[in-house]
Every structure is written in C-alpha cells, then in structure tokens.
C-alpha cells in the first residue's frame, strides 16, 4: 500500500536532490516520526535519510543542520555542505507539486521496506 505524504521542500543539484516530506498517515506528537529529510541519489535512484540536528529560519532564509551536513536555502536556491566536504554544493529550489516519478518511487520503496 503506498504511503501518503506531502512534499514540503525540494532542492536539486546535478547528482542528487534533497527533499523534506511530511507523512500524512502517521499520528504522532514526535516530529521525527512525521517529518523526514531525504537525499535522493539520481544515478542509483536510492535514498539516504538525513539525521536532523537543528533548524533556524528567518524572513529570507532557512537553515538545517544534519549529522551529514548543513543546508541553507530560500525560495529559489540554496547550498548544501556535506560534513566531509569543504565546498558547498549549489542547489535550485523546485516546485513541490509534482515530483519526478523516480523520486516518488524511491520514497515509496524506502518507507515500504523500512
């Protein structure tokens, strides 16, 4: 049975996408069971869960810190700096209304196998 979710953010780089989703069929007061940041590797069509540490947002920009790296973004673009990398990777914000089929398929596989 497919999972039901809403895409909150989608940011694209050449080799990967970062996506935040909210599971709609999970009833919990624990945000870690409802909200997920995932990294989609375009070449292999696989997902890695990003382990959330902290967030900050102001009027113009949002920031997320994960064990795997740091993300800064606004409505049009952003940067992601993996923990093991010195240089940030440029990202382009995308519409969240229609995900690429391969990304939706990877999300479905990730949660069904979970």
**SSE-based structural type:** mainly beta
- Rough shape? globular
Biggest sheet strand line-up: 4-3-2-1-9-8-7-6-5
How many separate domains? 1
Cα(first) to Cα(last) distance is 13 Å
Number of helices: 1
SSE arrangement, N to C: EEEEEEEEEH
Spans of at least 5 consecutive residues with low confidence: none
Beta-strand content bin: over 45%
What Rg, in angstroms, do the CA atoms define? Answer: 14 Å
Overall pLDDT: 94
Q: Biggest sheet, in brief?
A: 9 strands, antiparallel
Beta-strand segment tally: 9
Helix percentage: 10-25%
Could you explain the architecture of this structure?
The chain is mainly beta and 114 residues long. It has one domain. The protein has one helix spanning 101-113, and strands spanning 5-12, 16-23, 35-41, 46-50, 52-57, 62-66, 69-73, 77-82, 89-93. It has a nine-stranded antiparallel sheet. β6 (62-66) and β7 form a beta hairpin. The two termini are 13 Å apart. The model has no long low-confidence stretch (mean pLDDT 94).
């Amino acid at each position: 049975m497919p999972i039901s979710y809403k895409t909150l953010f989608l940011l694209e780089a050449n080799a990967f996408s970062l996506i935040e989703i909210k599971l709609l069929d999970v009833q919990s007061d624990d945000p870690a069971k409802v909200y997920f940041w995932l990294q989609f590797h375009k070449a292999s069509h696989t997902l890695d869960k990003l382990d959330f540490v902290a967030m900050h947002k102001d009027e113009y920009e949002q920031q997320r810190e994960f064990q795997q790296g740091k993300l800064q973004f606004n409505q049009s673009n952003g940067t992601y700096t993996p923990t093991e990398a010195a240089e940030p990777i440029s990202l382009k914000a995308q519409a969240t209304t229609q995900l690429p089929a391969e990304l939706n398929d990877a999300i479905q596989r990730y949660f069904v196998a979970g």
